[in-house]
């Protein structure tokens, strides 16, 4: 494992927990921001939906690729995880398979990735449901696009948490407010994560509508540039989510 192991697996552990809850950012829209405490009605619908409809992927497949800055692939890892209800507000993680450059490594990393985890850690911070001390400014733009056969309105936003400043674009279905795509970029770079310096980070979340009209996160793609031990690399991850189940509060454990 070239750069491999511990530093990058530390980052991978973080990335495995992100994406089900929008850390998203990337483009800025034109228009005045909504002052703190005021909410656009369509944005408010999105926030209400996400608050009352928490869908957890029962299975997630994460492919992590490490490239040199010249674009040469150095390493590739693939992890398949399952998430099931546990006790209280926790989930149970189970590692199904893990490979590095085609070789099985599940036994070596199982203890790092398995076990119970708080739902809040999986969902992460969300610009649609800021916690105390977090601040979101959002604005409706004039941009529209078709996603899943539905017309979506583009909203720019800025999201400040205790750890990061994020800028992004959320595409909300024109009538229901369902978020069908959200992009994000961390602008407060560089920052440190498990012994590495992150010099750039962005992500795109893709949603689909189920037959029952539920909005499910199906894919998350992240891209970051990192500095580890004096060497700079580009790391991409592709998360694919399947077998969603609705969070009902207490698990059956």
Question: What is the helix/strand order?
Answer: HHEEEEHEHEEEEEEEE
Low-confidence stretches: 1-37
Q: Report how far the terminal alpha carbons are from each other.
A: 38 Å
Alpha carbon gyration radius: 18 Å
Shape label:
globular
Protein model, in words:
- The chain is α+β, with helices and mostly antiparallel strands.
- It has one domain (5-243).
- 15% of the residues lie in helices and 52% in strands.
- The chain has four helices and 13 strands.
- The chain has helices spanning 5-17, 41-52, 106-113, 119-123; strands at 55-68, 73-85, 90-100, 103-104, 115-118, 135-147, 150-160, 165-173, 179-186, 191-193, 196-209, 215-228, 231-246.
- Strands 1, 2, 3, 4, 5, 6, 7, 8, 9, 10, 11, 12 and 13 form a 13-stranded antiparallel beta sheet that branches.
- Strand 12 and strand 13 (231-246) form a beta hairpin.
- The N and C termini lie far apart (38 Å).
- Residues 1-37 have low confidence and may be disordered.
Give a quick summary of the entry.
The protein has 253 residues and is an alpha+beta fold. Helices cover 15% and strands 52% of the residues.
Tags for this model:
single chain, 253 residues, alpha+beta, 13-stranded antiparallel β-sheet, 4 helices, 15% helix, globular, disordered N terminus
List the helices and strands and how they pair.
Layout: H1 5-17, H2 41-52, E1 55-68, E2 73-85, E3 90-100, E4 103-104, H3 106-113, E5 115-118, H4 119-123, E6 135-147, E7 150-160, E8 165-173, E9 179-186, E10 191-193, E11 196-209, E12 215-228, E13 231-246
Antiparallel strand pairs: 1-2, 1-13, 2-3, 3-4, 3-5, 6-7, 7-8, 8-9, 9-11, 10-11, 11-12, 12-13
């Amino acid at each position: 494992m070239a750069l491999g192991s511990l530093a990058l697996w530390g980052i991978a552990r973080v990335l495995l927990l992100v994406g089900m809850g929008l850390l998203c950012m990337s483009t800025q829209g034109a228009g005045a921001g909504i002052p703190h405490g005021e909410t656009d009605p369509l944005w408010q619908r999105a926030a209400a939906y996400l608050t009352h409809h928490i869908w957890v992927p029962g299975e997630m497949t994460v492919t992590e690729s490490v490239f040199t800055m010249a674009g040469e692939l150095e390493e590739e890892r693939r992890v398949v995880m399952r998430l099931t209800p546990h006790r209280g507000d926790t989930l149970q993680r189970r590692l199904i398979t893990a490979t590095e450059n085609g070789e099985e490594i599940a036994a070596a990393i199982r203890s790092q990735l398995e076990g119970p985890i708080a739902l809040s850690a999986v969902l992460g911070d969300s610009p649609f449901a800021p916690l105390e001390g977090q601040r979101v400014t959002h604005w409706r733009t004039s941009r529209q696009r078709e996603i899943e056969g539905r017309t979506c309105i583009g909203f720019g936003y800025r999201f400040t948490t205790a750890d990061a400043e994020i800028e992004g674009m959320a595409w909300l279905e024109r009538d229901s407010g369902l978020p069908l795509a959200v992009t994000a970029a961390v602008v407060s770079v560089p920052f440190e994560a498990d012994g590495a310096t992150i010099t750039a980070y962005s992500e795109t979340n893709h949603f689909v509508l189920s037959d029952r009209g539920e909005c499910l996160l199906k894919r998350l793609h992240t891209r970051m540039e990192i500095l580890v031990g004096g060497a700079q690399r580009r790391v991409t991850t592709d998360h694919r989510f399947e077998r969603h189940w609705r969070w009902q509060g207490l698990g059956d454990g």
